[in-house]
Design a protein that fits this description.
The complex is a heterotrimer of chains A (481), B (95) and C (494).
Chain A: E1 3-14, H1 53-65, E2 73-74, E3 77-80, E4 90-93, E5 103-109, E6 118-131, E7 135-141, E8 144-148, E9 155-161, H2 168-184, E10 197-207, E11 217-222, H3 225-244, E12 252-257, E13 262-265, E14 278-279, E15 286-287, H4 290-299, H5 304-315, H6 319-325, H7 329-340, H8 345-363, H9 374-385, H10 391-402, H11 408-415, H12 423-436, H13 438-445, H14 450-462, H15 469-480
Parallel strand pairs in A: 11-12
Antiparallel strand pairs in A: 1-9, 1-10, 2-15, 3-4, 3-14, 5-6, 6-9, 7-8, 10-11, 12-13
Helix pairs in contact in A: 1-4, 2-3, 5-6, 7-8, 7-9, 9-10, 10-11, 12-14, 12-15, 13-14, 14-15
Chain B: H1 5-14, H2 21-38, H3 73-77, E1 83-84, E2 87-91
Antiparallel strand pairs in B: 1-2
Chain C: H1 6-14, H2 20-38, E1 41-43, H3 46-61, E2 72-76, H4 103-110, E3 114-119, H5 153-160, E4 166-171, H6 177-183, E5 186-189, E6 209-214, H7 217-227, E7 262-266, H8 276-291, E8 295-299, H9 307-322, H10 341-352, H11 355-368, H12 374-394, E9 400-404, H13 420-424, H14 431-436, E10 440-449, E11 455-464, H15 469-482
Parallel strand pairs in C: 2-3, 2-4, 7-8, 7-9
Antiparallel strand pairs in C: 1-3, 4-6, 5-6, 5-10, 9-11, 10-11
Helix pairs in contact in C: 2-3, 7-15, 9-11, 9-12
């Protein structure tokens, strides 16, 4: 039988705020245990929550970015369950009325080597604000667990998709796209190691061509794209094999073990949950007005889609280039800055996607850490534009700049890379070359076009690469008459 | 909706309150009496009435995102049943 | 002096006829003498109280005295007070020393009032007789075989027995007004949102409201000036202009100070369930109000009988969640023996909570659980709106509503403990006010004779429209200018 996997994601994105969602305690990562656990974080008797404005604005930004409905009125509810890292015995979340409603995200799915990437729209069901739990530190003391509540109350935006994805590749493409988007709009630092972006993946399988969804299992807390890919692939295979062996799938929460590459059901969550949601009487309905939305929209950066359209329209870039340059905000910003510093757009695009990107990859750096700034790159490209150096020489200059050898002009000077554009000087070189290579001249004259290129090469070599290639071409043609 | 002993055990587990077999019967009796009182509500037709969560029709005030809390771990943990190295200790949590 | 008003005490302090230390000491002495029999206080800390009194004397000497500077106030043990044991009447918090101050406590500290001690209460404010306290029941100073009412029973007994100048209480379903009625003093539950709930241990968050418990309306007005006000730490705290609750009191003199006031009498408050002796006292009080110039109109609160079932869904539901934080992990009682985490939770909570609290947690858990939410919780919230609308309708025809605060006078200790439902009916006239979020007050209106021939106080309830506290206090004050019920003290405690 042919099987089809159906995947939906719930992503917990930690919002970029200074303080917790319901108290003025710091959210800085990595502090000593419980030093950022204020009276609200540890749920002393009598304490009360007050909602963080910044967290709400982050949610609005996300809603605007995915073209979603933003609720004029949303409600915070209590999700009741006992767990040592949940100090109040309930998590404040949004249940019936979330702040962000239906929206969509378009993803590019890289397909196999033989086929091209394809585009797919992933529907977002909702996104809601909630507080994070603390952390359990196992075996802090023999047979005991230690509870650190520094993270308790950290603001999260939980983003839930429809079960729209049909492969691990699609799920990973969506997760990567979302990861980039939340950083793009500045609501999440995207740090997966620190748990700022965690995905729960719901996986089920069904016979291909059928409508009814299979029983799903939820893979919890995936914090790397690589693990997500592995976990989904393993889980899918496991479910198919189980069904083919005549077994049934039980709804369950599972964990992925990166060491074994396997998923296994969690013991503690097996008990049937009855969260007894009800509206939190300590909090009032959250109102978002049109003015709130306009104000937040004004603070938002241009979104990737809009920027792509602008790159195509304004800079005449290809759709592919525009898409590549908007894969991350930092790259897009770098490119725009290069162009704004006076460099040619197409040339800037080629350099950013080419030399700059290659160096960054080789050194495992992000563009923010690039030793060559956008302004410096623009200065370099201008020297190509005004014929001071050739493209080839520019590559050497770029290497020099990367290594911190100085400014563009200083490096050109130091390496003697200045292009020769003096007609007389070039003609002298050509004469020498023609004299020394009579055989090639004869070949050319007998109709072998290839010989022309060889002569150009000889001229460039004789000029030590400094002659302006366009001029060499033109003069050589004339002189060969 | 009549309660039975299984309901008592189920809700006691949800509420994390140990109820012994002997207490369960007494609890069932008392809770049934309270539920009897509550049942009066079912006679009221509430079709179309918006539930009332708050007595004032106001919306949530928002707090500026400014750190106002300082570390008071020592004070807070002075009243904790068990701590070590700044952590609250509990019997091993199994995942 | 023990029967002096807060204003009089203020004058004595300001004119240096007495110091705050002396005043505090005299109360502490009365407490040492009478508290063992009444059990109004859970925690008394002479050293702390006297240190505050000393500081108050310095303020007074420096000319910085405010209305309540140096005056000893009893605090219900539901308010977290830094450095004070704060038990909420529960074994769960038997050893809990609060590391922070409730808003109400800070407000009293800010004016230099003296915290005289933490008063007894029904465990987590769940009860109408103060018999659910882990620290033992409180006795009614008018008859020690009877209950003082609850849940603010300790504060009630302390005010009635003059073991404090005034006290604080909280009222979720009548916990200030019913004990005020049973112990014969003035108690006000303000409009929901007027007094910050920050640091007040939550029972039912959407209903809980703190208020003053004192001898007179005038004293309550002075207390309100300290307690009310916006607090940004409570999302449900209302940001309103500051009011002087004493502003209208002086005008309550002369022939007919309440001329034109329309008093609504809900017919449902005088129907079956009301004790005949209590009814007589209320009728006499209403007659007195007519003499003060008021007009009487009959109004109706047709859904009042539903307020008890609605309350016993909503309050336990909220409480079941509010009390989940008592899990023995970060503070509070932890069982001595357990094999694993689940057992630690189950035993700690079974041992730490008393029977009534457990019942309410279980009822609340049940009504919120899967499959029952709509039939119970949602339905109750819908009827809550009907109950609130009844008041909106009634206030079209009257300015204030009057009636009994409790269906009977103080009942015998143990009389209703075996039947929770009978106990719940004690709140028949008070709960609807909490559900609607309105202000309600009880003032002493006279006495009924007990079967043993003892006088037992009866309270008149005055219910106002939202934010009408100042007017209600005026109305109470006008009555207290022509009657002396509020001045009377239990025998043997003069």
């Amino acid at each position: 039988m042919q099987w089809e996997v159906v995947i939906g994601l719930e992503t917990h994105t930690q919002l970029k705020t200074n303080t917790k969602i319901f108290s003025g305690a710091s959210t800085t990562y990595g502090a000593a245990p419980n030093t950022q656990a204020c009276e609200v974080s540890i749920a002393l008797p009598g304490v009360l929550p007050v909602l963080n404005k910044q967290a709400v604005e982050c949610a609005i930004k996300f809603g605007l970015a995915i073209d979603a409905e933003i609720a004029q009125r949303s409600v915070f509810s209590r999700k009741n369950y006992f767990y040592p890292d949940l100090p109040k015995g309930y998590q404040i979340s949004q249940f019936e009325l979330p702040v962000v409603g239906k929206g969509k995200i378009t993803i590019q799915v890289p397909a196999g080597k033989s086929t091209e990437a394809y585009e797919k729209v992933i529907h977002i069901t909702r996104a809601h604000l909630e507080e994070d739990a603390g952390k359990s530190v196992h075996d802090a003391v023999d047979g005991m667990s230690g509870i650190d509540l520094n993270r308790a109350g950290t603001p999260l935006l939980e983003i839930v998709t429809e079960p729209d994805m049909r492969s691990a590749a699609e799920a990973v493409a969506y997760a990567k796209k979302l990861h980039e988007l939340v950083q793009w709009i500045g609501i999440c630092d995207g740090n997966m190691q620190e748990g700022s972006f965690r995905c729960d993946v719901n996986v089920s399988v069904r016979p291909k061509g059928t409508e009814k969804l299979g029983t799903r299992r939820e893979i919890k807390n995936l914090n790397s794209f690589k693990f997500m890919q592995q976990a989904i692939e393993y889980e899918t295979q496991w479910q198919i094999e189980t069904l083919e062996d005549g077994g049934t799938i039980q709804q369950a929460t599972v964990l992925f073990n990166p060491d074994t590459g396997e998923t296994r059901a969690m013991r503690s969550k097996e008990e049937a949950n009855d969260y007894r949601y009800f509206p939190d009487p300590d909090l009032l309905p959250l109102a978002v007005t049109e003015e709130d939305k306009s104000r937040v929209r004004a603070e938002m950066p241009e979104l990737p889609q809009a920027l792509q359209a602008r790159f195509v329209g304004e800079y005449q870039l290809s759709a592919y280039d525009a898409s590549t340059l908007t894969a991350s905000k930092a790259v897009a910003d770098y490119f725009v800055e290069t162009v704004q510093a006076g460099a040619d757009a197409k040339q800037s695009a080629n350099w950013v996607m080419g030399a700059v990107s290659a160096k960054l990859n080789a050194e495992e750096k992000t563009i923010a850490d690039s030793p060559v700034t956008a302004t410096q790159l623009a200065a370099l490209l201008k020297r190509i534009g005004d014929n001071t150096i050739s493209n080839n020489a520019a590559k050497q200059v770029f290497e020099g700049m990367w290594a911190g050898e100085g400014t563009v002009d200083a490096i050109i000077e130091a390496k003697g890379l200045k292009q020769v554009s003096d007609t007389g000087a070039i003609e002298a070189i050509i004469k020498e070359v023609l004299t020394a290579n009579q055989a090639m001249v004869d070949e050319y004259k007998s109709g072998k076009e290839k010989a022309f290129n060889a002569l150009v090469g000889q001229c460039m070599k004789a000029s030590k690469g400094k002659a302006n290639p366009a001029q060499v071409n033109e003069l050589l043609k004339n002189m060969l008459g | 909706m009549a309660l039975n002993l299984d309901d008592i055990k189920r809700i006691a587990m949800l509420a994390r309150i140990e109820v012994s077999e002997s207490e369960a019967q007494e609890t069932l009796h008392k809770l049934s009496g309270i539920l009897g009182l509550i049942e009066q509500m079912q006679a009221v037709d509430t079709t179309g009435i918006t539930p009332m969560s708050h007595s004032q029709d106001v919306t949530q005030r928002l707090r500026e995102d400014v750190v106002t809390k300082t570390n008071q771990r020592e004070l807070f943990q002075s009243i904790a049943p068990a701590t070590q190295d700044g952590l609250y200790l509990v019997p091993k949590v199994i995942e | 002096m023990i029967n002096s008003s807060l204003k009089q005490l203020g004058h004595l302090l300001a004119s240096k006829q007495i110091s705050s230390v002396e005043l505090t000491q005299s109360y502490l002495q009365r407490m040492a003498q009478h508290n063992p029999g009444i059990n109004a206080y859970i925690t008394i800390d002479e050293e702390k109280s006297l240190a505050q009194a000393k500081a108050a004397d310095v303020s007074i000497a420096a000319g910085n005295a405010q209305a309540l500077t140096g005056i000893p106030i009893a605090q219900k043990d539901i308010f977290c007070a830094k450095g004070w044991r704060t038990t909420c009447g529960s074994k769960m918090l038997e050893t809990f020393i609060s590391p922070y101050d409730a808003h109400v406590i800070s407000q009293f500290d800010a004016v230099g009032a003296v915290n005289l001690g933490k008063t007894n209460m029904d465990e987590f404010a769940m009860g109408s007789s103060n018999e659910t306290s882990y620290f033992g029941g409180v006795k009614n100073p008018w008859d020690v075989d009877r209950v003082p009412g609850g849940s603010s029973g300790g504060s009630a007994a302390a005010v009635a027995a003059r073991l404090c100048a005034a006290a604080t209480g909280t009222d979720t379903g009548g916990s200030i007004r019913q004990p005020a009625s049973l112990c014969g003093f003035t108690g006000l539950k303000p409009t929901y949102g007027l007094v910050s709930r920050y640091g007040m241990i939550a029972f039912a968050s959407s209903l809980d409201q703190a208020g003053p418990m004192a001898k007179s309306a005038e004293d309550c007005a002075l207390m309100m000036n300290v307690m009310a006000g916006f607090d940004e730490r409570d999302s449900t705290s209302l940001n309103r202009p500051v009011e002087d609750y004493t502003r209208g009191l002086a005008a309550m003199t002369g022939d007919q100070p309440l001329k034109g006031l329309r008093i609504g009498l809900p017919k449902e408050y005088f129907a079956e369930g009301l004790n005949a002796d209590v009814a007589k006292v209320i009728e006499t009080a209403i007659a007195e109000y007519k003499k003060l110039g008021a007009d009487i109109v009959e109004v109706s609160l047709p859904n009042n009988n539903l307020s008890i079932p609605v309350y016993y869904v909503l309050a336990p539901a909220e409480a079941s969640s509010n009390l989940s934080r008592f899990d023995g992990v970060r503070y509070g009682h932890r069982a001595a023996e357990y094999n694993d985490l689940l057992e630690m939770y189950m035993k700690s909570r079974a041992e730490g909570f008393g029977a009534e609290v457990k019942r309410r947690i279980l009822i609340g858990t049940y009504v919120l659980s899967a499959g029952y939410y709509d039939a119970y919780y949602l339905k109750a919230q819908q009827i809550r709106r009907l109950i609130a609308q009844d008041f909106v309708e009634a206030f079209k025809y009257c300015d204030v509503i009057m009636g009994p605060a409790a269906p009977s006078t103080a009942f015998k200790v143990g009389e209703k403990t075996s039947d929770p439902v009978a106990m719940y009916l004690e709140d028949l006239y008070t709960i609807a006010v909490n559900l609607a979020g309105l202000p309600g007050m009880s003032i002493p209106a006279g006495f009924a004779q007990s079967s043993e021939g003892k006088p037992l106080p009866v309270g008149l309830q005055i219910i106002g429209n939202y934010f009408d506290e100042a007017r209600m206090l005026d109305i109470g004050h006008a009555y207290q200018q022509v009657t002396d019920w509020h001045q009377q003290m239990p025998a043997g405690l003069e």
